[in-house]
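Worked problem 6 (solution included).
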Amino acid sequence: MAAQAWRTCAIAALSVAATCSITGIALGSGMAWEAEMTTAGSEPQVVRVLTAPQRFKIQPRDGGTEYLVRLDRGEVYFIDAKKRTYQKVQLTELERAAANAREHMQLALKHMQKELESLPPEQRRLLEHMVGERQAAATKAKVRKTGKTKTIAGYRCSEYVAEAEGKTLLTACTTDQIPAFRELRKDWLTAQQRLGKLNPFGGRNLQETYGEIPGFPLETEMGGVRAVVTKVDTTAPPETEFEVPQGFELRPGPPLPR
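Solution. The predicted structure is:
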């Protein structure tokens, strides 16, 4: 479940209030948006993303697990509203588990490369593609502006692509017409970089390229996942949105790879 969480967080999101009580008072800055996410071979999924300084929350419209990231606490929460339960894990624990997963994956790929010649053509092409993606993701990507523009959710955006090793790793259409995001951009970039560490394919370098792309991403395509923003709300979410609801039972955290 943790791997699915970070796959969703990386593409959907997705960056201090002075004095706020927990009675629904809005934070000093923040915003929310809805996005439709599409992965090859699966039905589109609509998610709602709420952000405030050092706080992020992703809510699937289908009522699935909600993901709450508190950078200020260094904690991540997996919330099941139907069962009224939640799990909590330290972000450093997730990063440590991802580092172990990367190490094992690299060893497995090296072993598999030795067996390339004995594999059937279809399996060989799949492995070669995986190795190529791994090498490209570990390489510093170059960002360029394509000159293409479009209108998404009522905002005009410009297209950028990030490329490495001859591969297009990321395509994004961003806008500078949302002032609320400018206050959150620094935290958003920090979250992208930390979440990039959790990618077993070594996506940290790619996440860092977001710093070279200006504006708010209205459309992104990366790793076979496409996300398109359908609605933007520049009203700061209330503080209660970034807390586990009262009365929810704490359950043991999700199992992490050792």
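Discussion: Residues 1-26 have pLDDT under 50 and may be disordered.
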